[in-house]
C-alpha cells in the first residue's frame, strides 16, 4: 500500500508541475490533457485515474492550497489580544506560500485565475475581520476593513518580490519583515537589522 501511495503522490506532483509550467505560458482554456501528459511524462489513462479533466485538476490544486491557508490562519481565530502569536501565524502563512510557490507564481501571472486570488484574500479577510474586531474593540469595522486592504495589498507586493528573488530569503525573515511593516509602518526603515 505504501508503494502505491508514494507512486500516487509522485504522479500528482508531476501532473501539478506540468500544469503550473503550462499555466505560465498559456491560459487554462488552451491546455489540453495530451499536452499536460506529454509535459508530465505520463499517459492519459494515468491522468484520468486521478482527474476528470484539466479544470478538475486545477480545482483540486486550488482547493488544496486554500486548505493549507485556512490551516495557517486557524490560530488567528484563537487570539484574544494583539500579541506575539501574530508572528507565528505570519510565519505559517509565508510557509504556506513557499510550499505553494508554483501556484502563487501562476496566480499572480498573466494567465492566473484572479478569482482564485480573490477567494484566498477573502479567507484572510474573514479571519482578520473576526479576530481584529475582538482584539481591537475600539476600532470600527471600516478601520479594520481598510487595514486589511492595505495589509493584504502590501503582502502581495512582498510575495511578488520574494518570488522574483527565487524565495531565497528564509520564511522566518519574510514573516518578521511583514510583521514589522504592518506594525511599524515607515518606522521599519529606521530600525537596525
The count of β-strands is 0
Low-confidence stretches: none
SSE string, helices as H and strands as E: HHHHHHHHH
* Shape estimate: elongated
User: What is the structural class?
Assistant: mainly alpha
Distance between the termini: 50 Å
- Percentage beta strand: under 5%
Q: What is the number of domains?
A: 2
Sheet of most strands: none
Question: Which whole number gives the mean pLDDT?
Answer: 88
Number of helical segments?
9
Level of helix content?
over 70%
Rg, rounded, reads 19 Å
Provide a descriptive summary of the structure in words.
- The chain has 193 residues and is mostly helical.
- The protein folds into 2 domains: 51 residues, Homeodomain-like (Arc Repressor Mutant, subunit A, Orthogonal Bundle), CATH 1.10.10; 133 residues.
- Helix 5 crosses helix 9.
- It is elongated and about 60 Å long.
- The chain starts with a helix and ends in a 9-residue tail after the last helix.
- The model has no long low-confidence stretch (mean pLDDT 88).
Task: Please provide a brief summary of the model.
The chain has 193 residues and is mainly alpha-helical. It has 9 helices and no strands. The protein starts with a helix and ends in a 9-residue tail after the last helix.
Key features of this structure:
0% strand, mainly alpha, 193 residues, Arc Repressor Mutant, subunit A, 73% helix
